[in-house]
Write a structure and sequence with these properties.
heterodimer, A: eight-stranded antiparallel beta sheet, elongated, B: 181 residues, Arc Repressor Mutant, subunit A, 9 helices
Chain lengths: 282, 181
């Protein structure tokens, strides 16, 4: 493998997409070629810059609610006609007409899927419902976040170099301090972390391992959420809601001003053990 | 297609599709460059997805399917730039050949330093300076889509994705290297 070949597959190499033999060939070339090794470092730095510092935009809660609330609404027959998108010359000129024109463009889709509209909005409302929201909505949110993390090929924004690298990484990225003292151990190694969202607020996501299983811990501000007041289980100094959804075991608890959601497909006893470790000594 | 098909399709898509709203919105923000248009684009995406829910095969890649719908919706309504020289239809890669070691080290140490010091707004500005196609491949790669999935989203060959991604990253690096802090 020469420099030309290596540079062609450098990203594949960095992202672990090469077959083991090809990976070894690239590794061997990089070990012996300073110039390609520099290129490898530069590409790595660019990836780090993009993954860790490029701003990420979460969908506004208002958008999620609007998807649920507006889909079934048919325009009133008395509503005046709107201009079409093609009649406008620039995005800046469209602001007053934009939403209604887009609404019109997807309205036929919504009408064709009227059955869908009976289902999906309910799902949104279960997750996001402002008033009348229940602890079930928090469980659904936690499981969705966990599934999303499992499906991501790059779940971490900060690979674990230990709790003293992961927790400080959150500084400036959250509007609260995610107080987590458990650094991981041989049974539950800390794999990494990321910034996510829990319902309507930012959350610190910490990922621990248990053999081949993944355990997601979401830490977020606890205020304003529909915390349960009954059916709680004592776990050390914590009072936790223990439940299961879509095949995952879930623990939810408050600890001071912070809320915690722990989700995994591991045995409920393992989940309790990690929760106890996260809570620290009584 | 009957209502029963719609219901089954929706049930298959419904819950999981919601989990991708943030990722879809993020791409929409970087494509449309403003909040309102991004929200409209995501709404359009879910509208189209729901219309086609019965055609979606459960167990296949819902995430890539949704991103493809968003991309198509964007192209339908928003796409303006088609001849940006960064992509310009050039789908082959000219690898960056090594330069003499001492020159390379000096150059790379400056570039690495710039990359490490680049602030969020610098990286964002550099990304926004790319063409829409280049931005898309960078963002889909960050979103964790494979080259095959990205090829499916933007409707081109896998080799084209590879070349566009390589060129887009090279352009980003050059912009950030030339940036005066």
């Amino acid at each position: 493998m020469d420099c030309h070949d290596v540079l062609l597959v450098l990203l594949d190499y960095q992202q672990g997409r090469l077959a083991p033999e090809a990976h070894r060939h690239v590794r061997a070339h990089l070990d012996g070629c300073a110039s390609c090794a520099h290129e490898d470092r530069l590409e790595h730095e660019l990836t780090q810059a993009l993954e860790r510092r490029l701003p990420q935009y979460a969908a506004p809660l208002s958008l999620k609610r609007r998807l649920a609330a507006q889909w079934p609404v048919e325009p009133s027959p008395s509503e005046p006609p709107r201009s079409s998108l093609s009649q406008r010359s620039s995005l800046s000129q469209r602001s007053s007409l934009r939403r209604t024109s887009w609404l019109r463009s997807w309205m036929p889709a919504a009408a064709a899927a009227v059955i869908v509209l009976a289902l999906a909005p309910l799902a949104w409302q279960r997750v996001l419902g402002p008033a009348g929201a229940s602890p079930d909505a928090m469980v659904t949110e936690a499981v969705n976040d966990h599934v999303r993390l499992l499906q991501s090929e790059r779940p971490f924004e900060i690979e674990s170099g230990g709790i003293h690298q992961v927790i400080p990484w959150f500084a400036g990225r959250l509007d609260f301090a995610p107080t987590v003292r458990f650094p991981g151990d041989a049974d539950f190694p800390l794999r990494g972390g990321a910034v996510g969202y829990f319902v309507d607020r930012k959350a610190a996501t910490l990922v621990y391992g248990r053999r081949l299983h993944t355990l997601s811990v979401f830490v977020f501000r606890a205020d304003g959420l529909p915390w349960p007041h009954s059916g709680l289980e004592k776990l050390g100094r914590l009072e936790v809601l223990r439940t299961a959804a879509r095949g995952f075991n879930v623990l939810l608890w408050r600890d001071g001003e912070l809320g915690f959601a722990l989700v995994s497909d591991v045995d409920p006893r393992d989940l309790s053990l990690l929760a106890s470790k996260l809570a620290g000594p009584a | 297609m009957g209502a029963g098909d719609d219901r089954e399709g929706a049930e298959a898509v419904g819950h999981e599709a919601l989990a991708y709203a943030d990722g879809l919105y993020n791409l929409a923000r970087y494509l449309t460059k403003n909040e309102s248009d991004a929200e409209d684009l995501v709404q359009e995406t879910y509208g189209r997805a729901l219309k086609s829910a019965a055609q979606f095969t459960p167990g296949t890649n819902l995430k890539a399917w949704l991103f493809r719908i968003l991309r198509n919706a964007f192209v339908s309504h928003y796409r303006r730039e088609r001849h940006n020289p960064i992509t310009g239809g050039l789908d082959t890669v000219t690898p960056r050949l090594p330069v003499p070691e001492d020159i390379g080290r000096r150059r790379d140490s400056v570039e690495i330093d710039r990359l490490r010091k680049a602030a969020a707004e610098d990286i964002q500005r550099a990304l926004m300076a790319l063409s829409e196609e280049a931005r898309t491949v960078i963002l889909l790669d960050l979103e964790g889509l494979s080259e095959t999935e990205t090829a499916d989203v933007i409707g081109c060959a896998v080799g084209t994705v590879k070349s566009r991604l390589s060129r887009a990253r090279a352009a980003l690096r050059q912009t950030l290297r030339d940036w005066e802090p």
